[in-house]
Amino acid sequence: MTDVETADPQVLRTAMTDRLVREGTIHSAWVEAAFRAVPRHAFAPEATPEKAYDPYDIVATKKNEHGVIISSVSAPSIQAMMLEQADIKAGMRVGEVGSGGYNAALVAELVGPDGSVVTVDIDPDVTSRARQLLDATGYGRVEVFLADGEHGLPDRGAVDRWIVTAGAWDIPAAWTDQLTDGGRLVVPLRMRGLTRSIAFDRDGDRLVSRSAEVCGFVTMQGEGEHNERLLLIRGKEIGLRFDDGWPADPDALNGVFDTDRVEKWTGVTVAPAEPIKGMQMWLASALDGFCLMSVDPELDTGLVAPQNKRANITLLDGDSLAYLAIRRIGDRPEFGVHGYGPNAEAVADALVRELQTWDREYRQAEPVIYVYPAGTPEADLPAGRVITKRHRRIVISWPHKSQANKRTTMEKEK
């Protein structure tokens, strides 16, 4: 194949879609057809066609004064994943928060001429760009509104599907009030620092998860914006990220890394390419002092050796902490724990216990995530980790061991 041929947008679009189908990200004929139909490069004029059709790359469309991306065309793999989660049918009414244009065009293909698509964004530059590109590519029937997505769609009644294409910390009332009963909301929801694209079905005044996938998105702007808080340790080399909650005495951690390191290994190993999203969610829901550690790559002295230097699972308890570490045993990585501080031994043991509990009881399980109105009494919530936000109470509920094993057996029999 020549360079001219590979640069042809139609060839690139076919190759991108073929790859997403081959890898299983696209598994329905209707999502595949939409990806083959919509010219992604036309919605990403900032990029070369090769970059526009990279299945795993975003196209940044706007940055703030600090150079941080605040608007982008999401990676095709993420968009395909979320559209498969949404299960959009012909004739449906679909609302979208975040108006890149390309995703709305894909949805327009899915709903067909008898359906409707309304997209809303808080940024006039984003909505103006989306309107221009949708008109230029023949998707003029997609409605574009300039408004804060926190408040839903202006005067458009209920929708069958909501798709949110910005990272959300909470779920405002409008997203459920404007959703038909039995309708579906797909949203990248941040819980205790972990973001999952969750497909929720409406069940009366609550939402119940049907699937959850790892993802990353630029955060919501406007009233729904909620930023993590960062506690810097050892100058700016190491940071602890808190999504909700904050240490009662952050100064208690001064000098924590000057203490001797406690090192423990769990016997918990994983296959080289085995996903561990369930483990991360289990620890986030099981540990009261859960937070994430990050290490500045430019200031990294090698003092700490976390499993993931960008967002590593950490347990904080007053003046001591423990974080997830990893080493190789043969061809399999083994999880361990490094602890620091006066109570390093106890904190490390607590993290080890929960890692081993996940391995023993929940390795093949996924939680059900429920969303209730913020005023729901504790007694009316299912068992699980309760995260109270401004609008909602979110419950991460794990099956009992017998239920998890039963589900695993059923999945193996399919």
List keywords for this structure.
414 residues, alpha+beta, Rossmann fold, 3 domains, 10-stranded mixed sheet, 7-stranded antiparallel sheet, 11 helices, disordered N terminus, disordered C terminus
Can you describe this structure?
This protein has 414 residues and is an alpha+beta fold. The protein has three domains: 3-224, Vaccinia Virus protein VP39 (Rossmann fold), CATH 3.40.50.150; 229-362; 368-413, no CATH class. The protein has helices spanning 3-6, 9-22, 29-37, 49-52, 76-86, 102-111, 124-136, 173-177, 277-286, 344-362, 401-413; strands spanning 59-63, 69-73, 93-97, 116-121, 143-146, 159-164, 179-191, 194-203, 206-214, 229-233, 238-242, 262-269, 290-295, 312-317, 320-329, 332-340, 368-373, 385-388, 392-397. A ten-stranded mixed β-sheet has the order 5-4-3-6-7-8-9-17-19-18.
Determine the CATH superfamily of the largest domain.
Vaccinia Virus protein VP39
Record the strand order, biggest sheet. Answer: 5-4-3-6-7-8-9-17-19-18
- Mean model confidence by pLDDT: 91
CATH topology of the largest domain: Rossmann fold
Helix content: 25-40%
Number of strands: 19
Q: Give the SSE string.
A: HHHHEEHEHEHEEHEEEEEEHEEEEHEEEH
According to CATH, what is the class of the largest domain? Alpha Beta
Q: Write the CATH architecture name of the largest domain.
A: 3-Layer(aba) Sandwich
The domain tally reads 3
Oligomer: single chain
- Number of helices, counting only DSSP H or I runs of 4 residues or more: 11
The whole-angstrom Rg is 23 Å
The biggest beta sheet reads: 10 strands, mixed
Task: Note the overall shape.
Answer: globular
Distance between the termini: 41 Å
| SSE-based structural type | alpha+beta
Query: Which percent band covers the strand fraction?
Result: 25-35%
